[in-house]
Fold:
Amino acid sequence: MRKHVLVSADDAETRVALLEADGTVDKEKALQKGPDSKFKVAELYLERRSTTSIVGNVYKGKVDNVVTGLEAAFVDIGLEKNGFLHVDEIVLPGVEIPKRGRGKTASAPGSSIADLLKPGQEITVQVVKDPLKSKGARLSMEIAIPGRFLVYSPQGEGVGVSRRLEDRERERLRRAAKNLDLEQGGVIIRTAAHGAKVEDIGRELPYLYKLAEVLERRVEETVAPAPVFQEADLPVRVVRDIASDDFEKAVVDNKKEYDRLVSFFQRTAPELVDRVELWEDDRSLFDVFGVEKSVQSTLSSRVDLPSGGYLIIDYTEALTVIDVNSGSFVGRGKGARLEDTITKTNLEAADEAVRQMRLRDIGGIIVIDFIDMARARNRDAVLKTLRKALANDKTKTFVVEISPLGLVEMTRQNVTDGVREIMTRPCRVCEGEGVVPSELTIAIGFARKMRELATANADAKALLLQINPRVTAEFTGQGGWMLKGIEAETGKKFFFEGSEGLPTDHIDLLLAGTLEEVQERAVPFRPGEEVHVQLIEPHMFKANDAVAKIDGYIVAVRDGMPFVGTRVMVRIESAGRNEAEAVIVDAGLGPAQTGIQSGNAVS
Structure:
């Protein structure tokens, strides 16, 4: 799997795209015909000044609170929220702490976290998970300093090899590691070391030792709570993590980021410097290679499959659900069978579901609802395809077998916010719920409020309320039965005004007084008055008539249907509380003659 990195950066944000392909990316072909169909955007990363990831950063912190019931400590690291440190992540010199996993209680007396840490104690911690939603950062006292091929841990011991490598390659690297001059601490050989020579791996050790010395010196000089070590910039992190034999090129459209990548490779892998290329074309790098479309696609809940099926991705607080649908795909050929059609859709969905997980960086519990398959071999084929696709995902995952209901339950490590979370915010109307109360629901609630206002304004004969016209329509529509009932019950007349710009749940008492006082303000027109209006739509009940709306007030224009979408002069024949009836006087007027904009009227 060939890998390419595109980096697009400006003053506001830095975006990085990881492209994967079976063949090479032909830049000239991309410039002439658009993106090469051989490669796809596999992962997207986005950082802004206000949303920079702190994963990998090291802090000198101060223990704020120790909670024995959670076997955890909350550590002040100088951020808005305290970080969370579980007992399994505690490393203390000369103290052996048995690992028992979260949720399990200590089995031996004297092994409580309260015996290990005390409030006010200063400790060095590293962020292993960004603050997400209401939770603070996840911390660890086992410091890890990553390089291209190695991860060095000053408190560790021995040599480990990534489990993501094939058994044969792991064994080769394990043998090669015996030649490493490991003075102190421990190292883990990364997946990126696939095919690397022992000389290349060993060359990294002095560099990592030097970083560890700098880190130790800063810890001694720093007053807690404060940062002591910052992870590399986003482009360097991404390239560093994939810089193996599969890595072919990094294309950067920003000179500053280009220089940083070149500097990184000069220190760690001089042979790869020529794989970093500065994009100097006037066109957008992400547009030319089709990445911009992938960025925007992360905001949609629907993802189409090649055969005509589609996925629906639904995010909840507890988990993410990916629903598979056959859509317009009905099989191929006259002899197509339902089971074959379903299996074909599910196989495509398995590949695309993993791509979307990586693209959107979906973490936590994930449930994929495949279409039910009758045959066990077909279920096995879909699960095999899913696992094969996950093999390219560097994020830790755990997959459970397909259930009898066709569900696959899995977990994917959640480390940082994905592109979707960074680019969006909850809707200010629905607060992220996806639904809002209907106009009828709001109107029923307003009816109770109107009764309260009638009681509070006992001396008034009429009341003028400001509400959204769509809610007004619930009171005045269908013969106005709801409004008539309230007026009969309270003995008062209610008038309405408002615009579409008002929130649907807005209600305000504008005027309470005599019927004449309120009617004078509430009814904008008088019989015989001539006004200019914009006809916006046909009348709902009268086929030949049209409707104009001025701040929610309806003007029904007789025989106005042929003039919908134009501005006309009309004469008001009658004017009620919420609607006036009019006839056309002159249908030949345009904006230049009237001097007004759509939605307003002048007399």
User: Anything to note?
Assistant: Residues 55-92+111-227 form a domain with the OB fold (Dihydrolipoamide Acetyltransferase, E2P) fold (CATH 2.40.50.140).
